[in-house]
Amino acid sequence: MAVERIAFLAADHARDTARDLARRYGEHPVEGSDVIVALGGDGFMLDTLHRYMQLGIPIFGMNRGTVGFLMNAFQEDRLAERLRRATPTTLSPLRMKASRLGEAEVELLAINEVSLHRQTGQASKIRVSIDGRVRLDEIICDGILVATPAGSSAYNHSAHGPILPLSAGVLALTAISPFRPRRWRGALLPREARVRFDVLDPEKRPVSASPDARETRDVVSVEIREDREIEMRLLFDPERNLEERILNEQFRP
Fold first, then answer.
1. Do β-strands 186-190 and 195-199 pair in parallel, antiparallel, or remain unpaired?
2. Within 13 A of 156's CA, how many CA atoms are on the CB side?
3. Does residue 1 form part of some domain?
4. 234 and 216 part of one domain
5. pLDDT at position 2, please?
6. Which of 46, 91, 135, 196 has the lowest CB atom count within 10 Å?
7. The CATH number of the domain where 10 resides is what?
8. Residue pair 64/41 in contact by the 8 Å Cβ criterion
9. pTM beyond cutoff 0.85
10. Which residues of the chain have pLDDT under 70?
11. In CATH, what number is assigned to the domain containing residue 182?
12. What's the confidence (pLDDT) of residue 242?
């Protein structure tokens, strides 16, 4: 791919590094660039994707954070060569539409997951429908989430949900600390599925909805679907592409 015009974006603690790289490789505004190089951790990468996903510019992350699951290893040398060799991964976000008690609807996008959580000490009660058909009349739980394959190794996995290969073509529906039904832990859904959560008794048992940790409180119902009209391109070094990383996560001790 052409890499003549690079835009460098950095988390606060990595701004000095971004300035050094810009002096070495040149720098261009995001809107006119061939590629964005994001310097930070996974949280900064998610913020960058949310901010620029509509532009369709590929993003190459270099880890200056802690875990760096969505990032490549940091290295100052041979950046242009790495960008030319990089393997693209295309992701589509989840689109969440939430109705709230006495307020306007909220519509937001999520790259990793949309999660619902109880807001008080009382467990939430939620009805689960898939493609217009009720699948669970009531689940009593701390919460429930829908995760993309790219996000399946994050919060979803911590809630004992499955890790999904990127090519699997499915979404993960995972319960968070379910109380009733006790044996139900979740389901795999086709990526075309439309998920609806209805909060039962929302005034007594209030629930919040969080697309990628951006909280919307006091929701009454939440509809979730994959928005395949939006495509984000992440770039990875060929030997450590995202598909390989997700596969490796399934064999970690």
1. unpaired
2. 28
3. no
4. no
5. 63
6. 135
7. 3.40.50.10330
8. yes
9. yes
10. 1-2
11. 2.60.200.30
12. 85
